Amino acid sequence: MTRTFRFLILALAVLSLAACKKEEQVQVEEQVELVAPTGSDSRAWRDYLTQVVRRNSNEDVLQTFTYFLPGSDTEDYDALFQRQVDNVGGAIARGITAGNQLLFASPESDRLANLIEAAFEYAQAGSLRGVRVIFVGKPEDVERVKAVVEPTGAQFIFVEMK
User: Fold this and answer.
1) Does 59 or 7 have the greater pLDDT score?
2) Which positions make up the signal peptide (predicted)?
3) Is the CB of residue 96 less than 8 Å from the CB of residue 131?
4) Which end of the chain is more exposed for a tag (fewer CB within 10 A), N or C?
């Protein structure tokens, strides 16, 4: 009986230490500054945006819809830009369920702001209550994006692209 009791105590001690180390690892991971990719490498952007979502989501978020606009040097950029506007605008016009979040990112913040302005023309005032909109961009573009998002009732979150 004593041997079993000692084993149980030892097992609990090991589990406690493991939990502490895991908590420390999470805290260290959160302190690392995120740096956005400089080009249009889709893998680098996917990894970066995964971290952005992890840091800016909470337990109330049901699903994240990511809209990535590649750089203007991409082949058929104008057609791609218009398809994104139509895609986002159509989703907004149909309505986004509360608890979802929309993440917008691009290597070119000003062009992304143009896309958001055009797509949010489809939105009605108060139509996105309970929805979160994350804009990954430059500080100089925040106000114009915020101006079209906030009237919809969505929660606006700005992540500075560094």
Assistant:
1) 59
2) 1-18
3) yes
4) N
Q: What's the domain range around 63?
A: 42-160
Domain-embedded: residue 22: no
Residue keyed to tokens 């062009």: 111
In a domain? residue 30? no
Question: Quick check: is 98 in a domain?
Answer: yes
Instruction: Say if strands 63-68 and 100-105 run parallel, antiparallel, or are unpaired.
Output: parallel
Could you give the number of structural domains in the chain?
1
The sheet with strand 63-68 has its strands ordered as: 63-68, 100-105, 132-137, 155-160
For residue 58, give the nearest of 155, 161, 160 by alpha carbon. 155
Given pLDDT bands bounded at 50, 70 and 90, which one contains residue 42? Answer: confident
Distance of alpha carbon 122 from alpha carbon 118, whole angstroms: 8
